[in-house]
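Thread: Amidase, structure

OP (GT): Posting the sequence first so everyone is looking at the same thing. Length is 454 residues per the record. Can we get the structure tokens written out before standup tomorrow? I want them in the notebook alongside the other entries.
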Amino acid sequence: MHPDLTSVRDALLAGRESAAEWLDRARAAAALPASRHAFLRHFWPQAEAAAQAADHARAAGVPLPPLAGLAVSIKDLFDVAGHPTTAGSIVLPADRPAERDAAAVARLRRAGAALVGHTNMTEFAFSGVGWNPHHGTPANPVTAALDPATPRIPGGSSSGAAVSVSTGAAWAALGSDTGGSIRVPAALQGLVGFKNTARLTPLDGAVPLSTTLDTACAITHSVRDAVLLHEVLADRRVALSCRPLSGWRLAVVRTTLLDGLDTTVAAAFERTLATLRRQGARVEELELSHIEQLSQIQSSGGFAAAESWSWHRRRLATERHRYDPRVAQRIERGAAMSAADYIDLQQARSAWIASMQQTLNGYDALLSPTVPIVAPPLASITDDDAEFFRVNALLLRNPSVVNMLDGCALSLPCHGPDELPVGLMVWSTALRDDTVLDVSLAIEAALQHAGSRP
């Protein structure tokens, strides 16, 4: 179990450790077999300069920046000055370095992050599995410790991002979330993944999947680290009330989101609800039939298909053979959507969001399993397209509801110490980010107090 970034920053402030020493440990972790395929390229000289600057500042009595020269990884979707951005593909040129940082990367750098490298990902961020046939797929390092004989999927699309945090190669990871790409790998690896309201964080300098749904956000070890990273990425202060669990009105959504849970997820989720209720939480059950409307609303292909087709169509016309066929297949669904279909989709989403907001008014947050299954074996999806797409649909089913809602959500671990990782999703409507973080801090504390969170 790794400490979180906040505790390490406290150690730096107290002079017990140096940022350079912690960076050496991150570099060693990145070289371990558990980190295989997690990174596509490293930025060690830049990282060393940031760590040394933090150490010099502390020695001189200068206040440390928020991220204090500590290791942060960057999904290969975001531009880092001096390095190419390839989005996990072999289609984009690997010999054209970015001239400037993406906006989110620039904010991390200004906050003192030691940027350690571009992490592997599903090609063009188009699946929740984490599979990448071009660069290799990193095995889930957390499940490997419990079940070493069965390599399991890391979750995606921010696969290498989560692995970098799980192995200790980074304290936090910048990624993106279009239908769950932060929360899925966080759930499958026992980490914290916060998807903020999309408009709060900039996407300038990032390769798009869906301009409507994409969100720049981070994976961390703890909810307090999620608060810190969100403050940096959104350039805003989070307002926390630190109310006890009894001060929040919570609801469990019973419609669709609890369907087909495997036994590990079902047991962990029910145990979590029981723990929260014992510690004073008011948890109601809510039938939310609106969720059943999403399949019809997106029947023509959805935003990701339409908007990725617009971005990729010319390149696919000449280079389709270089794409992951599973990714190309999903992008090409957008070719069948007309302009009228796309306008209908926008209007239907707006009406659906308005109806959802009215129904959810009065609840502080909703509770659901982040994903309905534990991480499946890698072998099960390697050569079986039907199983791949079945697993992908299951992984994205719950978290994608929040993206369509234009909402915010946090996944935190809720499994026992000897169980495969399970995520609890705490979610709400747009711009309720501070409330979701506030509630999540209380839930995390309650689960740790009960011994139900590893």
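GT: Both are above now. Quick notes for whoever picks this up: The mean pLDDT is 97. The domain at 1-293+354-454 is CATH 3.90.1300.10 (Amidase signature (AS) enzymes).
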